[in-house]
Amino acid sequence: MRLSVIIPTYEREAILQRSLEALVKALEGIDAEVLVVNDSANRLRGLQANEKISIIQNRGKGAATARNFGASLAKGSLLLFLDDDIIVQPRSIYRLFELHAAHPRSAFNFFWYFPEDLTRELPRTSFGRYLLHYKINSQVSRLIDKDVVGKELVSDYGVSSYFFSIERDLFLETGGYDESIPHAGVEDIILSKKLRRLGIPMFLSVKDVVYHNESDRLDLWQVMERYRRASVTMNAAVRSGHGEFERKFSVFKKLGYSVFLPFRKPVYRLSRLVPNLPVLDPLYFKWVNLLLGLSSYQGYRESK
Question: Are residues 54 and 177 in the same domain?
């Protein structure tokens, strides 16, 4: 079985390079190709050459389109969709083949954590401690309501594209990712619905770990903007007929957010003045939650 790895990327060459270095090592002795789909107008000129890696231009069309485009060019019978910030382990690919051999006609995710070097840095900043407090440095928070004790595979989970493998024929049968929605955020959920309708099992392999290297995206303002774009994306999904993504804000929250919304940037600037002291973390965490809520509401308002 030949493997095609599809990696959409946009303006993250240093992050991508680290991911590719780990991937190339994991692919040693394996019949595989790597399709890097570059969504930026800027060429990827600094990547180290490798016979298994092809770079494809897909300027400004978004992650969903990039993944579909890569799949249309793939020659392998097994597809692995990989985000550009995912660092695989040496045996990740071998484990993938083992899982597909044991569970044919299935889709798989691996569990993710932040890399160890990044995790060590988090306690040094207020926002890093916020991420640790809410367990945003791993998938643990998403498994709180799942019975995972003693299990290697968790089913009925849905798929996420950071590390997502599926047989090529099955992926094409779904029709691929929905390209009509701006930004990333809901295309995985829509694809999961398609997989369920086709009766394709989806598994999260809890004991197989990859590393999610978001070292370039741990700025509070960047996270606020991601929350804003997520609301824009959800509204677009609702307009496309996916009513389950409709955002609902209570009257109290609408009133409160409407009052604070004009001051989102000043409130953010004030948050940067909070001393980096653990004793102030409870106050800082509430401040961050307010900013993230405001950002979600702004995206909701501007795209209605």
Answer: yes
Residue 223 one-letter amino acid: V
Q: Model confidence over 145-191: pLDDT tens digits? A: 666 666 788 886 789 999 999 999 999 999 999 998 877 789 999 99
Q: What is the mean pLDDT of residues 58-64?
A: 84
Determine the residue type at 39.
D
Q: What is the domain range of residue 296?
A: 220-302
**What pLDDT is stored for residue 295 in this prediction?**
97
Cα–Cα nearest to 195, from 167, 161, 162, 171: 171
Query: Which pTM does this prediction carry?
Result: 0.93
Dihedral sign for Cα 54, 60, 61, 65, please. positive
Q: 58-64, long-range: CB within 8 Å, 24+ apart, which pairs? A: 58/8, 61/179, 62/179, 62/182, 62/183, 62/184, 63/8, 63/10, 63/39, 63/161, 63/177, 63/184, 63/187, 64/177, 64/178, 64/179, 64/181, 64/184, 64/187
